[in-house]
Amino acid sequence: KSFANTSDEGWLRSMFAHKVDARKDAHSNLLSKKETSNLYKIQFHNVKPECMEAYNKMSDEVQRELHRDADYPCEVIGSWNTWYGEQDQAVHLWRYSGGYPALTECLRKLNSNMAYLAFRKERSKMLISRHNQLLLEFSFWNEPVPRSGPNIYELRTYQLVPGTMIEWGNNWARAIKYRQENNEAVGGFFTQIGELYVVHHLWAYKDLQSRQETRNTAWLKEGWDVNVHYTMPLIQKMESRIMIPMEHSPLQ
Length: 252
Known about the structure:
Blueprint: H1 2-15, H2 27-31, E1 38-47, H3 52-68, E2 74-84, E3 89-97, H4 99-110, H5 114-124, E4 127-137, E5 152-160, H6 165-175, E6 185-193, E7 198-205, H7 208-218, H8 224-231, E8 235-245
Antiparallel strand pairs: 1-3, 1-4, 2-3, 2-8, 4-6, 5-7, 5-8, 6-7
Helix pairs in contact: 6-8
């Protein structure tokens, strides 16, 4: 009986070992970086197959022009075409230095930029559908910086159970160290506008074989299995995209 009671107590303790503290603030304030005021936007463009080459070329030209103009407080962090996952898709990740005011200023200027408006009109002829999300970056992830290639990128997207973002962040804050040994961690983000309780993890690998080896190595490290155990129940849906950088992408 004594042994049974001890076992029961141990089992009960394990059930509550990772209990998250009571909410004292919005999860956007608790999980995002305090030292920066960066806002991110991710765009998903589903392109007509016959237009992909022209779309990539036009996107390259427009993004280069925006980067040359210091009046626009935005920059493209990375642009990719999906290789495995949803086909004929372009993904763009933008950063607005200064948060929502920077986004508002950028949109105001673009709406009076005749060349950009002409680009949007021409681009609309090439698209089947498009959607975007506004994101914040997790405080414990490294900030995305340009890197040389060639690399492939994996965008892993998680739709979480509403109300579990802080628990997700608490677990990954401890676990991210297991996934930085090969410099594969590019950035981690969560949505603010668009589909809510969505997390995006962006990884870089030299190729698919390197991806497999890196992910297998994580399972050999004590503690990685615990992170998977506690985060899997938080996920409603998950998706993986393997992406190839566009020619002009700062992330190569």
